[in-house]
Amino acid sequence: MAEHDVDQLHDEGALWHGRGQLARAIACYRAALTWNPTALETRSNLAHALLEMGQQHAAWQSLEDAPSRQRQHPTLLATAGALHCALGRHEAAVDILDPLTRSGRVDEMPWVNLATSQRELGAEAAALASLREACDINADNARAQADLAGLLLSLGRSTESLAVADAFLEHHPEDRQLLAVAALALHELDRHDESREICDLDSMVEIVDRDELDLPPGLLQELANHLGAEPSLLSSPLSKATRGGRQTGELDPASHPGLLAIESWVKSLLPTELHSWRWWATLLEAGGRQLPHIHPRSSWSGVFYVALPEALQQLDPSSGALEFGRPPSHLRLRSNPPTRVVAPMPGRLVIFPSHLWHRTLDFSAAGRRVSVAFDATDQNSGS
User: Which of 11, 107, 194, 377 is paired with 19 by a 20 to 30 Å CA distance?
Assistant: First the structure.
């Protein structure tokens, strides 16, 4: 196979990987490595995709399968450190990433992963130093800057946190990660009006029930069954917020008439200049939930409830609900930020700016909670 065809296989794998279609991505990466076993980036991507697929042993084996002269290459060492970090093996991650970063042979991302593990191990001063190094290497890395602002916030240094966020937003005014942290820092500084300008949960979260969505009887249940058989479904994928449930990769709305009708309805409610639409589904059962998160690569997000357990909220009105405003637990705050809880209902659509923190509360009712979510990007957005 010609070299450009190997590159094409890698690029196709990366495309499927970005869409959450991991089985297709893995097939492309493996095919590329068959022809060129020395392709470091392809091998690194394969290891990440296998880990996201839940195939831990295969992920590590893919690194072991590298030619012996490459096994200590900085790219593969950085990948091994990132895998340990993702799996919560933070001491092992530090053992690899600390000497690697000091070698001067890596970009900023090993520093970011090192900081995550250092923070989780309680070495917050070291994590702070690592994040500053990452930001010095690449001042435009939003993840590094957001992690730095978030760590400063957790250390009670809200003024410094806001300064980091403001400096980045001056050059990247639409960045969702820094907007989310800036709102928290403003709230911590008792600048509540300014915080609400970024995250006003009352005005920014829109609820639309399906009065205008004319669907044939039984179509939503058919859609729920269709989604339950989607080949890309993964249980508690490491790279996503879903825990104790399953999530699909990117969906093609044309794959089911119910999904196509929902897409058309949602697009009629939002500005026409939105583009780069992405759709996926989440299926939760008793004990399932979604951790607090934002959607950093989009402008607008939303969720449509396809099916719910009958007894979902009979005992507790917050069961299985969508809660806005509460950040992840590693962002420690001295005060409680405003929150808003939205009850799920079959046919209900919830639309919100992508930088709002949100999570799904768990529930104990028998049955499946099935929802379809979307992201879309504003044409003028810097995201």
Answer: 107
Q: What's the mean pLDDT when you consider all of the chain? A: 94
* All structural domains of the chain: 3-198 (1.25.40.10), 201-378 (2.60.120.620)
Burial classification of residue 265, based on how many CB atoms lie within 10 Å of its CB (0-12 exposed, 13-18 middle, 19 or more buried): middle
Residue 380 has a pLDDT of 59
| CB-CB contact of 292 with 358 (8 Å) | yes
Q: Residue 206 and residue 370: Cα distance in Å, rounded?
A: 20
Q: 357: how many CB neighbours lie within 10 A of its CB? A: 22
Contacts (Cβ under 8 Å, ≥6 apart) of 380: 174, 273
Backbone dihedral angles phi then psi of residue 374, each to the nearest 5 degrees: -140, 155
Would you place residue 278 in the very low, low, confident or very high pLDDT band (cuts 50, 70, 90)? Answer: very high
Whether 325 contacts 338, CB under 8 Å: yes
pLDDT tens for each residue of 8-61: 999 999 999 999 999 999 999 999 999 999 999 999 999 999 999 999 999 999
Q: How far apart are CA 103 and CA 375, in angstroms?
A: 39
Per residue in 321-369, pLDDT (tens digit) is 999 999 999 999 999 999 999 999 989 999 999 999 999 999 999 999 9
207: which strand partners? Answer: 350
Are residues 148 and 164 in contact, defined by beta-carbon separation less than 8 angstroms? yes
pLDDT at residue 2, rounded to an integer: 57
Q: Which two tokens stand for residue 300?
A: 């607008």
Contact 78, 70 (CB under 8 A): no
Residue with tokens 């829109």: 206
DSSP state of 349: E
Counting Cβ atoms within 10 Å, is residue 45 exposed (0-12), middle (13-18) or buried (19+)? buried
Q: CA separation (Å) from 358 to 95, 185, 213, 290, 322?
A: 34, 17, 25, 9, 7
The SS3 of residue 160 is helix
pLDDT, one tens digit per residue, over 173-187 is 999 999 999 999 999
Which residues are bridge partners to 372 per DSSP? 281, 304
Q: Which residue has the tokens 């890596």?
A: 106
How large is the C-alpha radius of gyration of the chain?
22
| Alpha-carbon gap, residue 77 to 57, rounded angstroms | 17
Q: Characterize the bridge pairing of strands 369-378 and 274-293.
A: antiparallel
